[in-house]
TrEMBL record:
Source species: Mucilaginibacter rigui
InterPro entries noted in UniProt: VanZ-like
Protein name: VanZ family protein
Transmembrane segments: 7-28, 34-56, 68-86, 106-126
Entry keywords, A to Z: Membrane, Transmembrane, Transmembrane helix
One Pfam entry name: VanZ
Keyword field contains Lipid biosynthesis: no
All residue ranges annotated as the VanZ-like domain in the record: 39-120
Length: 131
């Protein structure tokens, strides 16, 4: 457990932040989209983008590599999408003041994939430049 916290500590803290944000009841009067239609989906996408970058950073540190391998990226993708599905399930069943939505899960998935793709692209570019 200590090793997990050593490498994945920032990602775990961000995942807890996401869980808290997704559990808070919003009872603001007015339209459900705060600034523009789809703002909620953008927030989901950005939250999971940051989570995926932090999670990939933990994987790079854990495996002591200069870039993330495709197999690890695929495992990270499965973990992140599962976490997004868990949050949506909790919003449907436990946090009844919130509503689970397939579109939110799609936004979580897109944000996760964008973050992992960004880490793959950046780490490969850095390694290509150094060699």
């Amino acid at each position: 457990m200590k090793q997990t916290l050593k490498y994945y500590g920032p990602a775990i803290l961000w995942a807890l932040f996401i869980l808290i944000i997704c559990a808070v009841p919003f009872s603001a009067p007015g339209p459900p989209d705060l600034f523009f239609p789809g703002f909620d989906k953008l927030v989901h996408c950005v939250l999971f983008f940051v989570l995926s970058v932090l999670y990939c950073y933990g994987s790079i540190r854990k495996w002591q590599t200069r870039s993330i391998r495709i197999a690890i990226a695929m495992k990270n993708t499965v973990v992140l999408i599962s976490y997004g599905a868990l949050i949506e399930y909790l919003q449907m069943r436990v946090f009844t003041w919130r509503s689970g939505d397939w579109n939110d899960l799609l936004a979580d998935t897109i944000g996760s994939c964008m973050g992992i793709f960004g880490v793959l692209l950046t780490s490969n570019a850095i390694n290509h430049e150094n060699s």
